[in-house]
Amino acid sequence: MKKKGIIERLVMGKKRDKDLTENDLPSTRFKQFAFVFRTRFGVIFRLNLISALFFLPFMAWDILAGGYVADFVAGMTAEERFSHLIYLTLLQYGTEIPLLMLGFSGLAGIYYAVRRVCWGQSVKIFADFGKGLKQSFVQFMLLGLMTGVINLIVNYFVQFVLITSESADALLWALALTIVLLLAVIWAIVLMFALAQSSLYKLSFPKLLLNSFMFTFKRLFKSLAVCFIALLPLLVFAFMPWLIARIIGCCTAIVFSIGFAVTVQTVYCHGVFDKFINAKSYPDFVGMGLAGSKDITEAGGEAEEQ
Q1: Distance separating alpha carbons of residues 85 and 80, to the nearest angstrom
Q2: Which of 92, 93, 166, 304 could form a cystine bridge with 65, CB 3.0-4.6 A?
Protein backbone atom coordinates (compact mmCIF):
# COMPACT_ATOMS: atom_id res chain seq x y z
CA MET A 1 0.00 0.00 0.00
CA LYS A 2 1.35 3.43 -0.95
CA LYS A 3 2.63 5.42 1.99
CA LYS A 4 1.04 8.84 2.61
CA GLY A 5 3.10 11.95 1.92
CA ILE A 6 3.60 14.59 4.60
CA ILE A 7 1.03 17.00 3.09
CA GLU A 8 -1.57 14.25 2.79
CA ARG A 9 -0.94 13.21 6.40
CA LEU A 10 -1.38 16.81 7.56
CA VAL A 11 -4.62 17.30 5.67
CA MET A 12 -6.20 13.87 6.16
CA GLY A 13 -4.70 13.05 9.54
CA LYS A 14 -2.90 9.95 10.75
CA LYS A 15 -4.80 6.68 10.49
CA ARG A 16 -5.27 4.96 13.81
CA ASP A 17 -4.12 1.37 14.16
CA LYS A 18 -6.81 0.74 16.79
CA ASP A 19 -9.66 2.48 18.56
CA LEU A 20 -8.74 4.51 21.62
CA THR A 21 -9.59 3.00 24.99
CA GLU A 22 -9.93 4.41 28.51
CA ASN A 23 -6.29 3.53 29.18
CA ASP A 24 -5.17 5.62 26.19
CA LEU A 25 -6.70 8.84 27.53
CA PRO A 26 -4.45 11.41 29.28
CA SER A 27 -4.66 11.87 33.03
CA THR A 28 -3.81 15.60 33.23
CA ARG A 29 -4.51 18.73 31.20
CA PHE A 30 -0.84 19.02 30.28
CA LYS A 31 -0.86 15.48 28.91
CA GLN A 32 -4.18 16.20 27.21
CA PHE A 33 -2.59 18.87 25.04
CA ALA A 34 0.16 16.49 23.89
CA PHE A 35 -2.40 13.72 23.38
CA VAL A 36 -4.67 15.91 21.24
CA PHE A 37 -1.84 17.11 19.02
CA ARG A 38 -0.50 13.60 18.62
CA THR A 39 -3.82 11.94 17.77
CA ARG A 40 -5.89 14.73 16.17
CA PHE A 41 -3.33 17.03 14.55
CA GLY A 42 -4.86 16.58 11.10
CA VAL A 43 -8.23 17.85 12.37
CA ILE A 44 -6.68 20.87 14.07
CA PHE A 45 -4.61 21.60 10.95
CA ARG A 46 -7.73 21.71 8.77
CA LEU A 47 -9.62 23.83 11.30
CA ASN A 48 -6.65 26.20 11.36
CA LEU A 49 -6.82 26.63 7.59
CA ILE A 50 -10.52 27.47 7.70
CA SER A 51 -10.24 29.97 10.55
CA ALA A 52 -7.24 31.60 8.87
CA LEU A 53 -9.47 32.53 5.93
CA PHE A 54 -11.32 34.93 8.22
CA PHE A 55 -8.02 36.61 9.15
CA LEU A 56 -6.65 36.92 5.61
CA PRO A 57 -8.09 40.45 5.02
CA PHE A 58 -6.54 41.60 8.32
CA MET A 59 -3.17 40.01 7.50
CA ALA A 60 -3.07 41.49 4.01
CA TRP A 61 -4.07 44.97 5.16
CA ASP A 62 -1.62 44.92 8.08
CA ILE A 63 1.25 44.17 5.71
CA LEU A 64 0.16 46.73 3.09
CA ALA A 65 -0.67 49.51 5.55
CA GLY A 66 2.47 48.84 7.59
CA GLY A 67 4.60 49.08 4.45
CA TYR A 68 2.89 52.30 3.38
CA VAL A 69 3.37 53.93 6.79
CA ALA A 70 7.05 52.90 6.93
CA ASP A 71 7.68 54.43 3.49
CA PHE A 72 5.67 57.55 4.33
CA VAL A 73 7.67 58.42 7.47
CA ALA A 74 11.07 57.46 6.04
CA GLY A 75 13.40 60.46 6.31
CA MET A 76 10.98 62.55 8.40
CA THR A 77 12.09 64.43 11.47
CA ALA A 78 10.54 63.64 14.85
CA GLU A 79 8.38 66.77 14.60
CA GLU A 80 7.09 65.78 11.16
CA ARG A 81 6.32 62.26 12.30
CA PHE A 82 4.48 63.59 15.34
CA SER A 83 2.31 65.85 13.18
CA HIS A 84 1.13 62.78 11.22
CA LEU A 85 0.90 60.39 14.17
CA ILE A 86 -2.88 60.39 14.69
CA TYR A 87 -3.59 60.15 10.97
CA LEU A 88 -1.17 57.26 10.42
CA THR A 89 -2.34 55.40 13.52
CA LEU A 90 -5.96 55.60 12.40
CA LEU A 91 -4.98 54.66 8.86
CA GLN A 92 -3.31 51.44 9.91
CA TYR A 93 -4.80 50.37 13.22
CA GLY A 94 -8.17 52.10 13.09
CA THR A 95 -9.06 50.51 9.78
CA GLU A 96 -7.95 47.13 11.13
CA ILE A 97 -10.73 47.08 13.74
CA PRO A 98 -13.52 45.75 11.45
CA LEU A 99 -11.03 43.31 9.92
CA LEU A 100 -10.19 42.00 13.39
CA MET A 101 -13.89 41.63 14.08
CA LEU A 102 -14.19 39.47 10.97
CA GLY A 103 -11.18 37.40 12.02
CA PHE A 104 -12.55 36.89 15.52
CA SER A 105 -15.85 35.65 14.13
CA GLY A 106 -13.89 32.78 12.59
CA LEU A 107 -12.45 31.97 16.00
CA ALA A 108 -15.97 31.09 17.13
CA GLY A 109 -15.90 28.15 14.74
CA ILE A 110 -12.48 26.80 15.66
CA TYR A 111 -12.98 27.20 19.41
CA TYR A 112 -16.15 25.11 19.26
CA ALA A 113 -14.58 22.41 17.10
CA VAL A 114 -11.32 22.25 19.09
CA ARG A 115 -13.34 21.93 22.28
CA ARG A 116 -15.02 18.85 20.79
CA VAL A 117 -11.59 17.51 19.84
CA CYS A 118 -10.27 18.00 23.38
CA TRP A 119 -13.35 16.34 24.84
CA GLY A 120 -12.91 13.29 22.61
CA GLN A 121 -16.05 13.97 20.61
CA SER A 122 -16.43 13.29 16.91
CA VAL A 123 -15.76 16.30 14.68
CA LYS A 124 -17.20 17.08 11.26
CA ILE A 125 -14.91 19.87 10.11
CA PHE A 126 -17.28 22.15 8.22
CA ALA A 127 -20.46 21.27 10.13
CA ASP A 128 -18.95 21.82 13.58
CA PHE A 129 -17.04 24.90 12.49
CA GLY A 130 -20.29 26.33 11.15
CA LYS A 131 -22.18 25.41 14.32
CA GLY A 132 -19.64 27.21 16.48
CA LEU A 133 -19.74 30.20 14.17
CA LYS A 134 -23.53 30.42 14.36
CA GLN A 135 -23.59 29.90 18.11
CA SER A 136 -21.04 32.52 19.26
CA PHE A 137 -19.98 34.82 16.41
CA VAL A 138 -21.68 37.94 17.87
CA GLN A 139 -19.76 37.80 21.16
CA PHE A 140 -16.55 36.89 19.34
CA MET A 141 -16.95 39.92 17.07
CA LEU A 142 -17.51 42.17 20.10
CA LEU A 143 -14.33 40.79 21.62
CA GLY A 144 -12.61 41.50 18.30
CA LEU A 145 -13.90 45.07 18.43
CA MET A 146 -12.49 45.59 21.92
CA THR A 147 -9.19 43.99 20.90
CA GLY A 148 -8.95 46.27 17.87
CA VAL A 149 -9.51 49.40 19.96
CA ILE A 150 -6.90 48.29 22.51
CA ASN A 151 -4.49 47.51 19.68
CA LEU A 152 -4.97 51.04 18.29
CA ILE A 153 -4.39 52.70 21.69
CA VAL A 154 -1.29 50.64 22.48
CA ASN A 155 0.31 51.28 19.11
CA TYR A 156 -0.42 55.00 19.37
CA PHE A 157 1.33 55.20 22.75
CA VAL A 158 4.27 53.14 21.51
CA GLN A 159 4.85 55.46 18.56
CA PHE A 160 4.24 58.54 20.71
CA VAL A 161 6.92 57.54 23.22
CA LEU A 162 9.38 56.59 20.48
CA ILE A 163 8.95 59.96 18.79
CA THR A 164 9.15 62.02 21.99
CA SER A 165 11.88 59.93 23.63
CA GLU A 166 14.26 62.91 23.75
CA SER A 167 11.78 65.39 25.18
CA ALA A 168 11.55 66.51 28.80
CA ASP A 169 8.31 64.57 29.24
CA ALA A 170 9.77 61.28 27.92
CA LEU A 171 9.92 59.67 31.37
CA LEU A 172 6.27 60.52 32.04
CA TRP A 173 5.14 59.14 28.71
CA ALA A 174 7.29 56.04 29.17
CA LEU A 175 5.49 55.44 32.47
CA ALA A 176 2.16 55.89 30.71
CA LEU A 177 3.27 53.44 28.02
CA THR A 178 4.23 50.87 30.66
CA ILE A 179 0.77 51.11 32.19
CA VAL A 180 -0.87 50.75 28.78
CA LEU A 181 1.26 47.70 27.97
CA LEU A 182 0.36 46.10 31.30
CA LEU A 183 -3.31 46.68 30.56
CA ALA A 184 -2.80 45.11 27.12
CA VAL A 185 -1.24 42.04 28.76
CA ILE A 186 -4.16 41.80 31.20
CA TRP A 187 -6.57 42.07 28.28
CA ALA A 188 -4.79 39.22 26.46
CA ILE A 189 -5.43 36.96 29.47
CA VAL A 190 -9.02 38.18 29.86
CA LEU A 191 -9.55 37.53 26.16
CA MET A 192 -8.25 33.97 26.52
CA PHE A 193 -10.87 33.17 29.17
CA ALA A 194 -13.62 35.08 27.37
CA LEU A 195 -13.18 33.20 24.09
CA ALA A 196 -13.16 29.81 25.80
CA GLN A 197 -16.22 30.69 27.91
CA SER A 198 -18.24 32.10 25.03
CA SER A 199 -17.77 28.84 23.13
CA LEU A 200 -18.95 26.73 26.07
CA TYR A 201 -21.47 28.67 28.17
CA LYS A 202 -24.48 30.80 27.34
CA LEU A 203 -23.53 34.07 29.04
CA SER A 204 -24.52 37.69 28.59
CA PHE A 205 -21.61 39.78 27.34
CA PRO A 206 -21.19 41.76 30.61
CA LYS A 207 -21.18 38.49 32.61
CA LEU A 208 -18.68 37.02 30.15
CA LEU A 209 -16.28 39.91 30.75
CA LEU A 210 -16.82 39.88 34.51
CA ASN A 211 -16.08 36.16 34.76
CA SER A 212 -13.02 36.54 32.56
CA PHE A 213 -11.53 39.30 34.71
CA MET A 214 -12.23 37.19 37.80
CA PHE A 215 -10.42 34.16 36.35
CA THR A 216 -7.54 36.38 35.22
CA PHE A 217 -6.76 37.65 38.71
CA LYS A 218 -7.40 34.30 40.39
CA ARG A 219 -4.77 32.65 38.18
CA LEU A 220 -2.76 35.68 37.03
CA PHE A 221 0.82 34.41 36.75
CA LYS A 222 0.00 30.89 35.56
CA SER A 223 -2.47 32.33 33.04
CA LEU A 224 0.16 34.81 31.87
CA ALA A 225 2.61 31.97 31.21
CA VAL A 226 0.01 29.90 29.33
CA CYS A 227 -1.12 32.89 27.29
CA PHE A 228 2.49 33.70 26.38
CA ILE A 229 3.19 30.11 25.30
CA ALA A 230 -0.01 29.99 23.25
CA LEU A 231 0.74 33.25 21.43
CA LEU A 232 4.51 32.82 21.12
CA PRO A 233 4.46 31.57 17.49
CA LEU A 234 2.57 34.77 16.62
CA LEU A 235 4.44 37.20 18.87
CA VAL A 236 7.89 36.14 17.72
CA PHE A 237 7.15 37.59 14.27
CA ALA A 238 4.74 40.38 15.22
CA PHE A 239 7.41 42.53 16.85
CA MET A 240 10.01 42.18 14.12
CA PRO A 241 10.29 45.33 11.97
CA TRP A 242 11.07 43.54 8.71
CA LEU A 243 8.43 42.89 6.07
CA ILE A 244 9.63 39.34 5.45
CA ALA A 245 9.16 38.55 9.16
CA ARG A 246 5.54 39.71 9.00
CA ILE A 247 4.92 37.58 5.92
CA ILE A 248 6.47 34.53 7.61
CA GLY A 249 4.33 35.23 10.68
CA CYS A 250 1.17 35.33 8.55
CA CYS A 251 2.11 32.07 6.81
CA THR A 252 2.76 30.44 10.18
CA ALA A 253 -0.64 31.59 11.42
CA ILE A 254 -2.36 30.21 8.33
CA VAL A 255 -0.98 26.69 8.76
CA PHE A 256 -0.30 26.30 12.49
CA SER A 257 -0.32 29.17 15.00
CA ILE A 258 -4.08 29.72 15.32
CA GLY A 259 -4.85 26.06 15.98
CA PHE A 260 -1.92 25.80 18.40
CA ALA A 261 -3.06 28.86 20.40
CA VAL A 262 -6.69 27.75 20.51
CA THR A 263 -5.77 24.24 21.68
CA VAL A 264 -3.39 25.45 24.39
CA GLN A 265 -5.90 27.96 25.70
CA THR A 266 -8.86 25.57 25.51
CA VAL A 267 -7.09 22.85 27.48
CA TYR A 268 -5.91 25.30 30.15
CA CYS A 269 -9.17 27.26 30.46
CA HIS A 270 -11.26 24.12 30.79
CA GLY A 271 -9.09 23.10 33.71
CA VAL A 272 -9.84 26.45 35.37
CA PHE A 273 -13.54 26.15 34.55
CA ASP A 274 -13.62 22.68 36.13
CA LYS A 275 -12.59 24.17 39.46
CA PHE A 276 -14.60 27.38 39.49
CA ILE A 277 -17.71 26.55 37.43
CA ASN A 278 -18.13 22.92 36.41
CA ALA A 279 -17.50 21.27 39.77
CA LYS A 280 -20.54 23.07 41.16
CA SER A 281 -22.83 23.68 38.19
CA TYR A 282 -21.85 21.21 35.44
CA PRO A 283 -20.32 18.07 37.00
CA ASP A 284 -20.63 16.17 33.71
CA PHE A 285 -18.12 18.59 32.19
CA VAL A 286 -15.42 18.06 34.82
CA GLY A 287 -12.28 16.53 33.34
CA MET A 288 -13.84 15.96 29.94
CA GLY A 289 -11.39 14.22 27.63
CA LEU A 290 -9.33 12.92 30.55
CA ALA A 291 -9.15 9.37 31.85
CA GLY A 292 -12.04 8.69 34.20
CA SER A 293 -14.33 11.39 32.80
CA LYS A 294 -17.90 10.71 31.81
CA ASP A 295 -18.56 9.62 28.24
CA ILE A 296 -20.63 12.24 26.43
CA THR A 297 -19.21 11.57 22.98
CA GLU A 298 -22.22 12.90 21.14
CA ALA A 299 -23.35 15.49 23.69
CA GLY A 300 -23.63 19.07 22.56
CA GLY A 301 -21.74 20.29 25.57
CA GLU A 302 -23.33 23.71 25.73
CA ALA A 303 -24.13 25.14 29.16
CA GLU A 304 -26.76 27.63 30.15
CA GLU A 305 -25.98 30.92 31.85
CA GLN A 306 -25.68 30.83 35.60
Answers
A1: 9
A2: 92
